[in-house]
Amino acid sequence: MWKTEVSVLLMRLGEGQKVLKILANHLISLYETPTSLTFSYDVKDSIEDKIYAVTSKIYHGKNVSYSLAKKLFLVLLKKAMRHCQFVLQKHSILFRQSIFTRCA
Question: Which of these, 68, 67, 36, 42, lies nearest to 57 by C-alpha position?
Answer without folding.
Answer: 42
